[in-house]
Structure formats: C-alpha cells, structure tokens
Amino acid sequence: MADPWTIGRLLTWTTGFLKDHGSESPRLEAEVLLAHALECERIMLYARFGEEPNEAVRAAYRGLVKERSAGKPVAYLTGGREFYSLDFAVSPDVLIPRPETEFLVIGLLDAAKTQKPATGDALQIADVGTGSGILAVCAALKIPTAHVTAVDVSPAALKIAAQNAAKHHVAERIEFFESDLLAKVPPARKFDFIVSNPPYITSAEMAELDRDVRDFEPHLALEAGPRGTEVIQRLIPQAAERLVAGGQLFIELSPQIHEAVQQLLQADGRLDPLPTIEDQNRRPRIVRARRRD
Which among 105, 114, 190, 243 is least buried, having the fewest CB atoms inside 10 angstroms? Predict the structure, then answer.
C-alpha cells in the first residue's frame, strides 16, 4: 500500500518539485500554498503533519502548485501579500508589494511628524499610481488626521485599492480618482505630500526581468519607456504645481535612474532636492524634494 499523502509528505514532495522548477524559497511557497488550500494559518501546518487532507483539498493544492511551477507568483495564487506588517489583497491587475516600498512609507511618516497642514487640521496626501493602495492605506492608518487622494489610471487597480481601504477601515479618509497622474484631480486641490511608486523600468530591462514579474505582473505599472524616466518626467511638474509651499514629494525609483531624476528635479526649478533614502542594500531608492516657498 502506498504511503498516504499526509501534510508532511505533501510539503516534502512539493518542496523538491518547486526547487526543481526554479523557486528560490520552495519550502516557504509549499507551506503558503498548502495553508491556502486548507484555509488555515501557515503555522498550523506544523501541528497537522500527520493529517491526510481530503481529495478536494489535494486537488486544489495540485492546481496551485502547477500554476506556481509555471511562474505565476504566490501572491496572485493566494490573493494577498503582507506589506508593512499589514495584509493586502492583490490581483494580476496590480503590482505585488515589495519591501523596498516600505522605505517610502517610513520616510513619509517621519516627515509627517513635523509637517503642519497648510489648510485645516488634516494633512493632504496624494498617492499617485496607487495600485493596490498600500501607500494610501498606510498613510491613512498611521496618520490618523490625514486625508488621502489616491489616483490610478487603471480602474481595475482602483477596485483593489478600494477593497484594501475598506478592509483596513480607512475608506472614509481616502478619495479615489481614475486619472493619468494628477490630470483629473480637481485643479484647486493642493497637497502637503505627494508620494508615488510610478513605472520606472526601461523597455530593455523588461526583457531581463524574472518570468514571475515579466509574464504575470502588469506592464502598465512597470514599464516607463526607453529611458525609465518617462512617467517621472511628467509627474515632477504636476507635483510642483500641486504641492503647497514647503510640501514634499517622494518618488520610488530604480537606482539606475537616480541621477537622471535628480536632474529633472533641478531643471524644474520649483523643487529643492532633499537627501535620497537608500534601501537595505544602500542603493538610492526614494527621491525626495521640497516645494520652494
């Protein structure tokens, strides 16, 4: 008689299978997918190693593992990803949140401690290219008096962002606009902070990305154009126009285009560059600038 397909055996087999198919974290992925199929917390697997899941669960798990071995990211298979210690819904309509973007959140929260609202009692924050809404939601959660304007050109992305705002109980303080950058945001609206994780991958770099990213994540949110600065070049003058005096701009970018973006800021003439925030590998990651008085 063949050995039963217990949770322990399933994890052992799947770990080897995913490793053979290029996974860099095969055990972790095997556990995340099985916990998703079982509808339980991953930590609970350790107390259930000897349990034999029913055929429906095993069939669902096989389907997930097959899709993962073909390159589909785990976050899209499970429908969620943790960011800044919070759970966010994701779909193939939005980028999967990445640790580097947490440096933008940290920088914004630090700056907000000393920034007084230009009007009223609430800091006005714009999240340009909100995607899944991670920046907008974190800003609303961590700055309780903030009012956030979240914009994205993709209506499908805005649906995910709104879902995340509702999930974290901040929907009443986030206003969503379908807009190419700030074009459709009411012209009179000014901001104390504008934050953005815009497309900044060059067309040449797109071809070199891992298949998980290249073949599954939305190119609209990744690829800027031949130089990588095309979207940022349009964003900077719009941000300079919309920021209040002393307001700050935060832009996540690739280290490869850092100098080019600094030149764009200087060329605009209305924004004074601030020290760039580096990522965990000491590479320039978050460009900052302040609107001149």
Answer: 114
